[in-house]
Amino acid sequence: MNITTLSFILLSIMAIGSAVMMIRSKSPVHSILWLIIVFFAISGHYVLLNAQFLAIVNIIVYAGAIMVLFLFVVMLMNLNAETEPVKNYRLQLIGVISGGALLLILLSALMKMNSQQMVQMKIGDPGLISNLGKVLFTNYILPFELSSILFLSAMIGAVVIGKKD
Amino acid sequence: MDIKAYIVLALTLFTIGIIGVLVRRNAIIIFMCVELMLNAVNLLLVAFSKMHAVSAAVKASPTYASDAQIFVFFIMIVAAAEVSVGLAIIVMLYRNTHSVDVNFLNRLKN
Amino acid sequence: MSNVLQIAWLIPILPLIGFIINGAGRNNLSKGVSGFIGSAVVFASFLLSIYVFIQVKNGHTDVLHYFNFINIESLKIAFDFKLDQLSSLFLLIITGVGFLIHVYSTSYMHEEPAKDFAKYFAFLNLFVFSMLLLVMGANYVIMFIGWEGVGLCSYLLIGYWFRNNDYTIAAKKAFIMNRIGDLGFLLAVFWLIAKVGTVSFDEVFSTVNLAKLTLTDKTGITLLLFIGATGKSAQIPLYTWLPDAMAGPTPVSALIHAATMVTAGIYMIARSNILYTMAPLTQGVIAIVGLATAVLAATIALKQNDIKKVLAYSTVSQLGIMFLGLGVGAYTGAVFHVMTHAFFKALLFLGAGSVIHAMSGEQDMRNMGGLKKHMNITHLTFLLGCLAIAGMPPFSGFFSKDEILAAAYANNPLLWGIGVITAMMTAFYMFRLYAMTFLGKFRGTHDQEHHLHESPFAMTFPLIILALLAVIGGWVGIPEVFMHGGHKLEAFLEPVFANTNEYVNAHHPHEHLSPSKEYILMGVSVAGALIALLYAWNKFSKYEKTELPSTGFAKLLENKWYVDEIYQSIIIQPLRSLSVFFNNVIEKKGIDGFVNGTGKAVNYGSRQLRWLQSGQVGAYVLLMVIGILVLFIIQLFL
């Protein structure tokens, strides 16, 4: 077992475990912190895949900006464990069962697939900043610029919705 | 690494997100579960981008197989925008109902 | 060549115009005017029919095309009139006898209010129109229009006094019995269309198209057509409507029985003669049914006391004889008998009407008697009619009846034997009727006796004409044994039955009866009828009213073999119970239950499904996931 495989397993356990903890913890603040750990684990996966740019962006945008925004809102509303009423137990069970069934079905479909495709871990450099930048500013220049308009409209929307009327 | 390992990982994360959506009533947590599902898909996209890098002719270009990662980038952009609007809605909801329980959203019914 | 017949479309149109005028103006026309219009249009048709007849006799037969009645893909049904020997002869009978009945009606119906009077004539005209259409139609569909038309008109006329409930029921009975037969006719037409693709007489009877029909087809089609004929022409099992049709005014009975309606079945079979000749099974069925009807009706007539009922059953019996003729292949004989029967039966009915008129509506013969003194013309003409129907030479009935009987003998002597017995019974009941009505002494009330009078000229005139025809009408068909070339009718109708004769000669040639044998047969039947006649004359001229109820067989006959009661219990009662069952169980529980159950199920289901639409986001998401799950399962594993 080489170091790559080992780190893959460790990161996977970390991601899955944290995700489970996220949906299990009562306090929203804890959930957010667990989710941040999941994002870090996923960033680690990106690094393993030699997608450095995305690894960085994931940490900056998700773990940094978005989750901080969540945290901010939670703290603003002063939510804690007691504020959430207990959900119907039966409905929870049904939710878990159906989710698990979905996973099982997808996995069994995967088992039927007889592909021996391997993922190249360290070699290959499409994830490098310079290459991505070239593609982004040549082929994808229009979506890139449009996304700024999307951000603008999202900002205006957030302001309009959040405004006290 | 076998591609299947990544698929299994992404599926697991995705399903955890779904279960979270199903069992939690807190709108913020549900929102976070959606983000988790998005990330699971992102991870799979990146894994696939590395899987397809096989053809020598394609390999010669420095920008081969970058499209999937560009996709991920745009997904992040959209997610960020979505989160800003979504959180604004949740704040609004909390202001009106003093709760973030999605069951109170059933007032939309009438 | 066709130009000479082009005017023929006026023949049916004129009565239709009369119907429209009388029908539309029934509130405004006086009795005189509507009676005149009604009679005049038929008279005009009669004149035209004579013209057509003469043209046809000179060899100008034709099919006149007017327009396409039905035009579907491969099926083209034209509105055509066929004018040949057969139809022109029927035209003469219908319009001629019809005209006399119209004239008679102007006097007979005089006591009706003007409005009903005009209505009556409108219906009569429509009746004649329908019958003309039936006879002139050049294909089965046009024939069917007339066929339905006479059914409708008989309903209207039998139920003319519709305020009397019994009469309405009789009208409905006639209509329903006819409908049963019509269904058979219709099925036969459909069968023809399916197999041959045409309904035109000329095309169906062509050698090419006949070859397309298997023996099963021919037998099936002819049997179905025969069912139609049993309805219209009152044969077993559908004959019961005809005696009940006496509910209508007497001239209507005369019209139905003599000139129109009941002859439709004979005409139709005579028209389709080649089909029937090619289906021996059907011929056998027709002969047996006809003979059975003849015997049954004759026995019933022996014990009836209503003057019109006796005549009604005699009509059924005579129609049976005609069908016997058709069944043994004596098409000419059957048509001949239709003609002579039209004369003497119209005469008898109109005579009976005259008697009823004189008796102020009394129809029971037990209350009559001795009318000879009071009604000379009626008495004399009636006697001639009785002699004609009894088959006394040289009256018309003798020639036509004996032609049929001779043909029956050639086919099977047993048929002949039963036929002769029927003829004897006919002579017996007719002279029972005659003797009870005109001989002996009067048995009615004093008022009635005081009122007795001879009918007016408008009523006696048709009687005289018809009596004349009843006497001499048979002379167009004198058998070969008496006079060579004497059977003018056969020579005239020869082209119509040419196909059949050819077929018969090719397959099983007729053995001609030897002249001596023919004389013997005639002698036997005439002697039998004469004995029956004299016996009845003797017995009933001294008839006294008795209060003794009849017993045994006589009672059975008096009650018409209980056929109506049998129909009532075998067909109507089970049908009624079945409909009650359907109403109570199938309709209320089954269909209503199903319909209401559907409503209830939807109601209940939506009340249950309402909980799905809870407004709970969580529940929606859960459902969505389950939906995805199902889709995945279908996609991946099925």
Keywords:
heterotrimer, B: mainly alpha, 4 helices, elongated, C: mainly alpha
Number of helices of chain C: 27
Major β-sheet of chain B, in short?
none
Shape of chain B: elongated
Average pLDDT metric of chain C? 85
Helix/strand class of chain C:
mainly alpha
- One letter per element, helices H and strands E, the order of chain C comes to HHEEHHHHHHHHHHHHHHHHHHHHHHHHH
Radius of gyration of chain C: 29 Å
Broad structural category of chain B = mainly alpha
Rg calculated over all Cα atoms of chain B: 19 Å
Count of helices of chain B? 4
The percent of residues in helical segments of chain B reads over 70%
Give a structural overview.
- The complex is a heterotrimer of chains A (165), B (110) and C (638).
- Chain A has six helices and no strands.
- With 165 residues, chain A is mainly alpha-helical.
- In chain A, 30% of the residues are buried.
- The mean pLDDT of chain A is 85.
- Chain B has four helices and no strands.
- Chain C is built from 27 helices and two strands.
- In chain C, α15 packs antiparallel against α19 and α18 packs across α24.
- Chains in contact: A-B, A-C, B-C.
- The interface between A and B is large, with 86 and 72 residues.
Q: How is the secondary structure organized here?
A:
The complex is a heterotrimer of chains A (165), B (110) and C (638).
Chain A: H1 3-24, H2 28-48, H3 52-77, H4 89-112, H5 129-138, H6 141-162
Helix pairs in contact in A: 1-2, 2-3
Chain B: H1 3-23, H2 27-51, H3 56-60, H4 67-97
Helix pairs in contact in B: 1-2, 2-4
Chain C: H1 10-24, H2 31-57, E1 62-72, E2 75-83, H3 85-108, H4 114-136, H5 140-158, H6 165-195, H7 201-204, H8 207-212, H9 215-232, H10 241-244, H11 250-259, H12 262-271, H13 273-277, H14 280-302, H15 307-327, H16 331-358, H17 376-390, H18 396-411, H19 413-438, H20 446-451, H21 457-472, H22 488-493, H23 498-507, H24 515-541, H25 552-558, H26 563-609, H27 617-637
Antiparallel strand pairs in C: 1-2
Brief synopsis:
In chain A, 76% of the residues lie in helices and 0% in strands.
